[in-house]
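Design review, sub-item: ligand-bound model
Attendees: FS, YL, KQ
YL presented the inputs for the zinc ion complex:
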Amino acid sequence: MKELRELTEGRHNYDEVLDDGFFEKMNDGGEGDFGILGGRVRVHFEAEKNGLGAVLGLDFEGEVRVECDRCSEDLELEIKGEDEVKLAKEEIEEFDTAHYVYESIVLSLPLKRVHEDCLPALPKGVRFVDEEPHEGLGDGGMQKMADNPEWSKLAGLRDKLE
Ligand SMILES: [Zn+2]
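KQ shared the predicted structure:
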């Protein structure tokens, strides 16, 4: 990725495409790991540099892959955003563009990362089919169902049909 210190004075417009390799490199597995597994994001840069410092503006659009908070399967998120940073001359040398872009993308992610219509994964060892002898709902269970408005509606319907 092009760094500000490599640019000549003046205005510069350029694009970069971030791919899986970029996100793999940025995920350090520690505090700086925000769970982006991969993606494809187009970033457009507008940089202006002069004797005093530089301004770097960027806008990005694309998709990133994260883990669904509910089922832990891959989830594709469409992302879009923009950002701008102003730097004094002495800051340009140390400025890490890749890191800045990565942070901007992380900040654009939604707080909730779940598939639409996602069902939670069953905890390990839990099975759909209950192998224990079934004891039925019992009176308490029936009462619980009666408390459910949807069930009451159905019960009402059944009464009408009878
Ligand atoms: Zn999910």
